[in-house]
Amino acid sequence: xxxxxxxxxxMTIVLGIVGSFVGGLLINFVHDDRADSSxxxxxxxxxxxxxxxxxxxxxxxxxxxxxx
Length: 68
Fold this sequence. Notes:
Blueprint: H1 9-31, H2 42-65
Helix pairs in contact: 1-2
């Protein structure tokens, strides 16, 4: 996510990892491929990136609206 991030790089990484898991799980439920779930799949990578961006975006919005 572009822009100044007041929470630091460690929390940004943690939120990105959490978002990656969330996005990967959501894509897995939506795609519902019966093939080997441990295999590398491009849809999982795309879902992970989108999930990480969504979680980081929600955090940015929540911090912007929170009283200082």
